[in-house]
Amino acid sequence: MEHNIYLYILVAAVVSCMIRVLPLTLIRKKIKNPFLQSFLYYVPYVTLAVMTFPAMLAAPQYPVAGILALAVGIAAAWKGLNMVSIAVLCCGVVFVCETAMVLFR
Q1: What secondary structure does DSSP assign to the chain, as a single string?
Q2: What CA–CA distance (Å, rounded) separates 72 from 83?
Q3: pLDDT band at 11, cuts 50/70/90?
Q4: Around Cβ 29, how many Cβ atoms within 10 Å?
Q5: How far apart are CA 67 and CA 96, in angstroms?
Q6: Are 65 and 94 in contact (CB under 8 A)?
Q7: How far apart are CA 32 and CA 45, in angstroms?
Q8: Engineering a disulfide at 81: which of 39, 61, 85, 90 sits with its beta carbon 3.0 to 4.6 angstroms away?
Q9: Radius of gyration over alpha carbons of the chain, in Å?
Q10: Rounded distance, CA 38 to CA 27, Å?
Q11: Mean per-residue pLDDT, 79-87
Q12: CA proximity to 76, closest of 68, 63, 66, 85
């Protein structure tokens, strides 16, 4: 069983390295396809959203707090606030909402 963990680490390292090395070695010219450019542009944002959205609903004690924080965060981003301000604002919304839920139950 202990020997398998080294194999798992090795496979994970090889896969992680290949994901980073292959595009650099295979794609040498500038990407001119507008669809592919836009796809690659949005990949980091989609990845962040896919990781963040479920956590916003699962992390708070009450999912309503996460949904409300999401709505406030979207509105704050729409207004042009920076990321730190949005994060602090969303944390405050979750704190106030969960405190209110505990006090009024």
Answers
A1: -HHHHHHHHHHHHHHHHHHHHHHHHH--SPP--HHHHHHHHHHHHHHHHHHHHHHHHHSSSSHHHHHHHHHHHHHHHHHT--HHHHHHHHHHHHHHHHHHHHHT-
A2: 13
A3: very high
A4: 5
A5: 13
A6: yes
A7: 21
A8: 85
A9: 21
A10: 16
A11: 95
A12: 85
Q: Let me know: does 89 contact 76? Beta carbons within 8 Å.
A: yes
Q: Which residue type does 41 have?
A: Y
pTM: 0.61
> Could you tell me the CA-to-CA distances from 26 to 20, 30, 31, 74, 75 in Å, in that order?
11, 12, 12, 38, 41
Average pLDDT, the chain: 90
45 or 3, greater pLDDT: 45
In which residue are the tokens 């194999």 written?
Answer: 7
Above 90 in pLDDT, residue 72?
yes
Distances (CA, A) of 90 to 17, 21, 57, 69, 72: 35, 37, 12, 5, 7
User: Is residue 58 over pLDDT 80?
Assistant: yes
